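ok so dumb question maybe but i'm new to this and my supervisor (M.) told me to 'just get the structure for Release factor glutamine methyltransferase' and walked off. so i did the thing. is this what she meant?? sequence i used:
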Amino acid sequence: MIRRAAAYLDERGIEQARREARLLFELAYGREVSWQLTHADEIMPETELFSDFVRRRGAGEPMAYLSGRKGFWTLDLEVTPDTLIPRGDTETLVEALLRNRPDRHSVISVLDLGTGSGCLLLAALSEYPQAVGIGVDRAERTARQARKNAKLNDLASRADFVVADWSDPLNTRFDVVLSNPPYIPKDDIPGLMKDVVAYEPGAALDGGDDGLDAYRQIIPRLTELLQPEGLAILEFGIGQEDDVANIAHKAGLSVVELCADLAGITRAIVLSR
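this is what came out, is it supposed to look like this??
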């Protein structure tokens, strides 16, 4: 079964097809890879569920949407096609926050703009036990999913989620503002991997003509959203650091740090008033 599934996935351009086939088997049968390796001679019926998973993965549907789960930082999150799938690159923002605010009692309030699955806000709250936070998203279904993830990770009592256009309804200041806004230039979206273009929410990808529309909305408001000693940490796309830094300078903000991901690619900016 796994050999046939791997061959099918490989023919359809799925990378690491053998590994993907094992993960789909685990998902359908509840049998981990270690069990598969030690019971390879057992006869098992091929279920419709397994066949369906293989077909859907072969068509490009992301594994996270098939399983409905995705790990981020130390959290286990539920994801749906209403939310962007959390990625390891975004953990760069959490690392930057911990590096710049190492005292775990120094952060009391956190704002997450474009919260999606809630991954950034919930990761921050998990590291700062006295903090409370607000996640903002323009889609009600997305905010509902973030609320569910807060409950799944025992953080619901410290997290609230608001449906709004960025920070429009907020009139308070925060110790930390986090955001992973849309940053893909509109004309570049069709060239992304098919599992991204066909399945992930387009509104979470589309950054306008040059990919910077969201930054022009978010950054000028940071002087009103940040406490005097507060920090804002924003993710951006490859090669966008200078443009985002220029928007920040024009808004009267200082660049504290540019942060690279594990591949050495600059992916986040730390700003202060």
